[in-house]
């Protein structure tokens, strides 16, 4: 399969070839012809599968083929994402794939000044990438008109629901024309995702590239059973003895991320933390330093790391297991991307054995155990309840959805959900 038989225009093929892509990934081969036909699509695909180009390339082609009526440039394609980082990445992808086309795009998300975004919108854009909270801010300030949207993409829809964006999504859907093309991407398929898909998609084509709820097969997964108090020492040992140069480490809380980055620093391992309490500037800087190699370990919370696109990231460490098993799939999906091998290591203490069981059930795999001399757990330590970070699990075993309405606010205030896009 080559890109040439997918029906893309020469401008797009040239941009793809500039990227050095020799053949489409499976999701691209399946999704591009479907999107070009103009129908709705429901796609089960994790990040790392090449899904962004899978919807961006055909979307650019459709928009370029149908020039807007009149002189104005209304927003004709809207892409919603759960996090700022993902929004920024998709926006970069659009710029890169659309470089030979006369289309304009911009990105809006919270945590940065709104005025430059207003100025960009005022000039007119064909494609808008946005996080839900800031998008609604623009709507309430009347700096954005969504009445001409022809294509809607919901990316990482499962994560948007986990972050409590369902109300914002519904509000946004109500602002769009009824007749439009809808593309919904999700790595996992909960009942809530199915409900959302049923309510917004019209006879969608289904595209599935990885088996449902299974972790990427390119990622080798291992578990180290270790006492909580020895996790930090084991992590330093693994990084040092294996000479790992680029490691993404997940903690459950923002505070835990900060503390771990500091402790690793004291062990001589250059580390930075990213989470929602850091300014956008600090997050962007930490990510850039990590990508370019001056920061060896990036410690992140689940939300901050969603959608991060780091080329050939070889190691992901779960310093703590996530409370929601689906988040494990997202975490390890940071490695083993676009065909390269990766390794996901989980440090599991006695308190987390139940979480490990949930994960193993979800990924349908018994994750192999590795024991390292000196780090075997003390069998006399009893399990304690896990103090909750972001996710709480209600008694029905499903991740808790935050359906609460944001408190009433003045129209120039950010809605609560805008800050959730950053945690
Ligand atoms: P995504 O899943 O969209 O986040 O893409 C994951 C990574 O794969 C990104 O770094 C893309 O640049 C890269 N990529 C996308 N399409 C291809 C392709 N056809 N061949 C090689 N790499 C690709």
Total DSSP E strands: 13
C-alpha Rg, in Å? 22 Å
User: What quaternary form is this?
Assistant: single chain
What characteristic shape results from the CA principal axes?
globular
Structure classification: alpha/beta
Let me know the average pLDDT: 85
Spatial order of the strands forming the largest sheet: 3-4-2-5-6-1-7
Question: How much of the residues is beta strand, in percent?
Answer: 5-15%
Tell me the span between the first and last alpha carbons.
40 Å
What does this structure look like?
This protein is α/β, with parallel strands linked by helices and 423 residues long. The protein folds into two domains: 3-208, 3-Layer(aba) Sandwich (Rossmann fold); 219-370, P-loop containing nucleotide triphosphate hydrolases (Rossmann fold), CATH 3.40.50. It is built from 16 helices and 13 strands. The protein has a seven-stranded parallel β-sheet with strand order 3-4-2-5-6-1-7, with helices on both faces. A six-stranded parallel β-sheet has the order 8-13-12-9-11-10, sandwiched between helices. It is globular and about 70 Å long. The structure holds adenosine monophosphate. Adenosine monophosphate is lined by residues 21, 24-25, 28, 47-53, 309, 311, 337-338. Adenosine monophosphate binds at residues 21, 24-25, 28, 47-53, 309, 311, 337-338.
Keywords summarizing the entry:
seven-stranded parallel sheet, binds adenosine monophosphate, alpha/beta, Rossmann fold, disordered C terminus, 423 residues, 16 helices, 14% strand
């Amino acid at each position: 399969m080559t890109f040439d038989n997918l029906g893309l225009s020469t401008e797009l093929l040239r941009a793809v070839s500039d990227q050095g892509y020799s053949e489409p990934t499976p999701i691209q081969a399946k999704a591009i012809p479907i999107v070009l036909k103009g129908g709705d699509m429901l796609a089960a695909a994790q990040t790392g599968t090449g899904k962004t180009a899978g919807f961006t390339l055909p979307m650019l082609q459709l928009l370029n083929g149908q020039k807007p009526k009149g002189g104005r440039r209304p927003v004709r394609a809207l892409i919603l994402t759960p996090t700022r980082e993902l929004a920024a990445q998709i926006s970069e992808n659009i710029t890169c794939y659309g470089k030979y086309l006369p289309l304009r795009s911009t990105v809006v998300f919270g945590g940065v000044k709104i005025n430059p975004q207003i100025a960009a919108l005022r000039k007119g854009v064909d494609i808008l990438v946005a996080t839900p909270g800031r998008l609604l801010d623009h709507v309430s300030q009347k700096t954005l008109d969504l009445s001409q949207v022809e294509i809607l993409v919901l990316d990482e829809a499962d994560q948007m629901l986990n972050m409590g964006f369902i109300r914002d999504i519904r509000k946004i859907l109500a602002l769009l024309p009824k007749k439009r093309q809808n593309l919904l991407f999700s790595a996992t398929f909960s009942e809530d995702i199915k409900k959302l898909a049923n309510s917004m998609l019209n006879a969608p084509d289904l595209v599935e590239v990885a088996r449902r709820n299974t972790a990427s097969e390119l990622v080798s997964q291992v578990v180290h059973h270790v006492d909580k108090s020895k996790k930090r020492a084991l992590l330093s040992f693994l990084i040092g003895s294996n000479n790992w140069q680029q490691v993404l480490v997940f903690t459950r809380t923002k505070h835990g991320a900060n503390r771990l980055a500091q402790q690793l620093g004291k062990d001589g391992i250059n580390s930075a933390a990213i989470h929602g309490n850091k300014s956008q500037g600090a997050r962007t800087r930490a990510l850039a330093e990590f990508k370019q190699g001056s920061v060896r370990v990036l410690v992140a919370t689940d939300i901050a790391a969603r959608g991060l696109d780091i080329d050939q990231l070889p190691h992901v460490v779960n310093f703590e297991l996530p409370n929601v098993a689906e988040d494990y799939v997202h975490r390890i999906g940071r490695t083993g991307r676009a065909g390269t091998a990766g390794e996901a290591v989980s440090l599991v203490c006695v308190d987390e054995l139940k979480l490990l069981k949930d994960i193993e059930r979800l990924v349908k795999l018994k994750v192999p155990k590795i024991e390292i001399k000196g780090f075997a757990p003390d069998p006399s330590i009893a399990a304690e309840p896990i103090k909750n970070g972001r996710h709480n699990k209600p008694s029905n075993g499903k991740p808790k959805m935050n359906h609460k309405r944001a408190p009433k606010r003045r129209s120039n205030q950010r809605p609560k959900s805008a800050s959730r896009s950053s945690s």
